[in-house]
Amino acid sequence: MPGLRIGRSTVWVLALFASIIGMSGCSTTDTFEQPAPLPDVDTTVDFDQVWDMSVGDGHDGSFLYLAPLNAGDVIYAASADGDLVAVTPDTGKLIWERELKDRIFAGVGGDGDQLYLVTREADLIALSRENGEELWRKSLPTEVLSAPQSNGSMVVVQTTDGRVLAYDAAKGEKLWQYESTVPVLSIRGAAAPLVGGDVVIASFANGKLMALAGDSGQPIWQYEVGQPKGRTELERLVDITGQPIVLDRALMVVGYQGKLALLDIQTGREIWSTKASSLYSPALGDGNIYLSSANGDVRALRGSDRDELWVQDRLAWRQLTQPVVSGDYVVVADFEGYLHALSAKDGSLQGQMEFDDEGIRVPAQRLANGNLLVFGNGGRLAVFELRKSE
User: Fold this and answer.
1) Residues 260/276, Cβ–Cβ less than 8 Å
2) What is the pLDDT of residues 42-53, one digit of tens each?
3) Which end of the chain is more exposed for a tag (fewer CB within 10 A), N or C?
4) Angle at the Cα of 55 from the Cα atoms of 383 and 105, rounded to 5 degrees
5) Does the predicted model carry a pTM greater than 0.70?
């Protein structure tokens, strides 16, 4: 579940943004929404495990988003306590493992030659994809929560205080820096930047999406996904914490208390938009858009006109992850560590499995063969195939 950030301090909330608890000198009498109880499901589909393993202590009790990197023929995964592994996606066979001396805060990012992580001490480190050997490291101005992104020639990171920094991928030399304005109160979580050949797309806590020139970091265009409204800082939250999706020559983006929009990638011109509130990017499948709303509703919209096809509200306030489409199903995970399979046709709950009792914060990923890669907060890494129940 996302947390809230005030200045340099962080407070966690028990449910989605409705209450801020126990911050030095800061409190509220607002009541927060209770998560819906785990729903009973008449199972028609099973999560059939292909393989699983443990990666260190996972998030090790910290509020992190250490998503594995699916590089096609290899999966790379890191834990907060510094365990880094490379495994095969089909069998989970260990290719290599490295125990780093650093605590890890963000990653795994990568390109054709290197992997990138950010440490708790805010060091950006580049490692060999062949064996995990450290190649270089650079000190960053403050903490990073989203995975570094690279196009092979430069690697880009986004700090929690709104800075975007680019470094030469080969040597780690700093190329440029862009700074944005961060609200007093923001969500502890940030979208990883998109790094193309000549442009970087960055999402900010002030609700703005920016296109920056890859060679200089200078702004090309900006788009307002959400506009702060309301009397309190909580009401004015408009963070973009889900990485935009590239669709040919367009970008799809969604923000908290903002909108879901499709933009021209070259100009930032809005093609269409509709009101929405989400912390994660949508999933696409069969011409439809699937969205985990901030209140826990899973919504399906027809891509051609954004008409709502169905809403599943039985998972309300369970702090759902980004959906992933696998065949005829839409899969989300929740804060209690359950995986839920919904019918892509009507949103009905079709399957359920407890995966990690420490919860699941990182969205599942669809592999090339259609199987699902899942990483739990406690460090369990596994691949599942969805199969109809016998």
Assistant:
1) yes
2) 999 999 999 999
3) C
4) 115
5) yes
